[in-house]
Amino acid sequence: MIDGPYGMAGLPRARRQNRRRPRPQRVPGTVKSPCTGVCTLDESTGFCRGCHRSLVEIRDWMILDDDDRRAIMAKVVVRRGVVPE
Predict the structure, then answer these.
(1) Which residues contact 38 (CB under 8 A, 6 or more apart)?
(2) Alpha carbon of 16 to those of 6, 7, 19, 25: distances in Å?
(3) Which residue of 2, 8, 27, 67 has the lowest C-beta tally within 10 Å?
(4) What is the pTM (predicted TM-score) of this model?
(5) CA dist., res. 74 & res. 65, Å (int)
(6) What's the rounded mean pLDDT across residues 60-82?
(7) CB under 8 Å to 48, separation ≥6 — which residues?
(8) Domain boundaries, the chain
(9) How do residues 4-58 score in pLDDT, each as one tens digit?
(10) Does residue 53 contact residue 47 with C-beta atoms inside 8 Å?
C-alpha cells in the first residue's frame, strides 16, 4: 500500500496532527467516582442509571478538583432519591 503525501487517511499528516486537541490533565483527588459500572443513560432524565451523573459530569470527572467533585456528589445524592433505578 502506497502512503503518498496524503497519508492513509486521505489527509496530509501535518493536518491530521494539528487537528488533535491537547487532552486536559487529570487532577488527582480524594473523592471517589460514583460509577457503578452500569453505564446506561435514562432518556427521560438524561442521567446515568448507575451513578446518576449527566454525560458532562461523567466526561469532566477526571479533570475536576475535589470541590467540584463534592458538588456533583451532592447532586447525585438528591438524584438517587428522584431517579428510579
Answers:
(1) 48, 49, 50, 51
(2) 10, 9, 5, 22
(3) 2
(4) 0.66
(5) 15
(6) 92
(7) 38, 39, 40, 41, 42, 54, 58
(8) 25-82
(9) 555 555 556 655 566 667 777 777 788 999 999 999 999 999 999 999 999 999 9
(10) yes
